[in-house]
Structure formats: structure tokens, C-alpha cells
Amino acid sequence: MEFVTYEVEGQVGIITINRPKALNALNSAVLEELDKTFDAVDVNEIRALILTGAGEKSFVAGADIGEMSTLTKAEGEAFGKKGNDVFRKIETFPIPVIAAVNGFALGGGCEISMSCDIRICSDNAVFGQPEVGLGITPGFGGTQRLARVVGVGMAKQMIYTARNIKADEAYRIGLVNAVYTQEELMDAAKKLASTIAKNAPIAVRNCKKAINDGLQVDMDQAIVIEEKLFGDCFETEDQKAGMGNFLEKDKEKKLKVVPFQNK
Ligand code: DAK
């Protein structure tokens, strides 16, 4: 792969978008490589993923404006589909994906972070949806996901004004769960991923599915989705071991819930 690297540390996979000369902007090649990288993750071994950008300046500075500028309508549609397919793959990926946002997360960069389950960032991170200044709407789900993450009013303000926000404001409005120094960010992401990886994998997957699917329907249907995924955990080794350890009062083995680390 030219633009995406994949490393494994224990049960955590780290996917890095590696095009630092263009601030990791998403062109067709990056999107294709990301798609292939996610397909290659062994979800039986890996329990959580981290998505980040190479270099110290940028997570992803958006879709590649140079490549987009000459697209015909048909090519624009194909480019949009390629991006949306990858973003949806991340959002519905069976295991949790943490975005470790290490700098600019603009346009498609902000959007790809929002297709991840959890966002944490470095103190130099900048988020924004600058598309209306470029004469387009956000096209990789920004109008939909930003409103769901930060609420309708704040999403509309960010999108209509195209104003960038810094890490502290992103934290205040709930776009990121925590802010770290640049040096601390990857360790914090790995610690978070390892904490998730220690929990019962089937339960974690089912929680992701229950939350994602439940948000698409009304509460009556959402509760049924939860019921089914709750029931699905029974008779699994995870459930037998998890409850068995508790009943045995085996403190060493007991599944522990560790709260998110906040700076
Ligand atoms: N695309 C291509 N190249 C980019 C880029 C981008 N988005 N962002 C930065 N680069 C390149 C620069 O051109 C420059 O390349 P060289 O000139 O060195 O060859 C290099 O990265 C370093 O950038 P700067 O020299 O500009 O660095 P600065 O520190 O001065 O500024 C910046 C950093 C992030 C503030 C600035 O680069 C910037 O404003 N970049 C553009 C940010 C932006 O507007 N991003 C949003 C793009 S719109 C669609 C679906 C989705 C989308 C579109 C269509 N369909 C459904 C069809 C998504 C749209 C977007 O994401």
C-alpha cells in the first residue's frame, strides 16, 4: 500500500492514512487503500481499531481538492460513492474504531472521524466543514453525522458558517471525548483500545450494533433491537465466563469496566 499503513499491537489494529505531503487528503487511491485495509483486518483476532493520520500536522485535511476540481458530474458521483462506501464500512465495522485526530480534520477529515465510534484528539486538532466556502455541501455524510453527534443547532452553525473549531471547542460541544497533548495522543488511544479489547468481544460488538441500529428507528423498535442482541450474548463463552467469574468471586478474572480517560 502506498498511502495506508496497518500495524497490529496485541489485539489492537492501527490504521494510518499516510499521505503527509498533502496533509493526508483523501484522493481515490487513499479511499481504495482504506477500503482494502479494513477488508483485511482479522476481526477474529483484533478487538478494536485506531484510525489516525501520519505526521504531526494533520489527521485528514479533507477530500483531495486538486483531484475533485476537474471531476465531471458522473465522476463526482463515483468519487462520492467510493468515499461513502468506505465511511459506512467503518461505521458498521463489527469492532469499535477510535479516531485519534492528530491535527486538521476538515471536510472529509471531520466526516471520516465521525464515521468512527469514538473521537479523541491532540491539542493542535482543528475540526470543520468548510465545504460551503468551496461551493459544495458536505458530501461524505457531514450533514447527517455532525447533527447526530453535536446536535442540530451546533451542526447547522458549523456547516453554514464553514468556521473551523479548535480542540477545546470540539471537546466542549461533544465532538471529541478527550483532548491530549500530541505526545500523549497515541498512547491514550492505545490505552482506550486495550480497555475495550479486554471486555467480552461479542458483547462489545453487539453493543455497537445495538447503538447504531437503534438510533435509526423509534424507541419501541430500538428496544426490540437491544432485546435481540442481548439475547444473542447468552450461551456464548464470553457470557458463561463473564458471569461465571463473577459468581466465583474471582477478582482477577472479573470483567472490569474502566471509565474513559479524560485529560
Ligand atoms: N486537498 C489536496 N491537497 C491539500 C488539501 C486538500 N484538501 N489540504 C492540503 N493540501 C495540500 C496543499 O495543497 C499543500 O500541498 P503543496 O502545495 O505543498 O503541494 C500541502 O497539502 C500543505 O498544505 P498548506 O501549504 O495549505 O498548509 P497550511 O498549513 O498552510 O494550511 C490547511 C493547512 C489545512 C489550513 C490548508 O491546507 C487547507 O485549508 N486545506 C484545505 C482544507 C479543506 O478545505 N478541506 C476540505 C475539502 S472539501 C463528495 C464527498 C465529499 C467531499 C467532496 C465531494 N462527493 C459526494 C462527491 C468532501 C469535500 C471536502 O473534504
Summarize the structure.
The chain is of the alpha/beta class and 263 residues long. The chain has helices spanning 28-40, 65-69, 73-91, 108-114, 131-134, 142-150, 152-161, 167-172, 182-198, 201-214, 219-232, 237-247, and strands spanning 4-9, 12-17, 48-53, 58-60, 97-101, 104-106, 118-122, 126-128, 165-166, 178-180. It starts with a strand and ends in a 16-residue tail after the last helix.
| Structural category | alpha/beta
Helix content: 40-55%
CATH class of the largest domain: Alpha Beta
CATH topology of the largest domain: 2-enoyl-CoA Hydratase, Chain A, domain 1
The assigned CATH architecture of the largest domain is: Alpha-Beta Complex
What's the helix count?
12
Question: Can you walk me through this structure?
Answer:
The protein has 263 residues and is α/β, with parallel strands linked by helices. The chain folds into two domains: 4-197, 2-enoyl-CoA Hydratase, Chain A, domain 1, CATH 3.90.226; 201-256, Lyase 2-enoyl-coa Hydratase, Chain  A, domain 2. The protein is 49% helix and 16% strand. It contains twelve helices and ten strands. The chain has a six-stranded mixed β-sheet, sandwiched between helices. Strands 4-6-8-9 form a four-stranded mixed β-sheet. Strand 1 (4-9) and strand 2 form a beta hairpin. The two termini are 35 Å apart. Mean pLDDT is 93; it is low at 256-263. 4-(N,N-dimethylamino)cinnamoyl-COA binds next to helix 2, helix 3, strand 6 and helix 5.
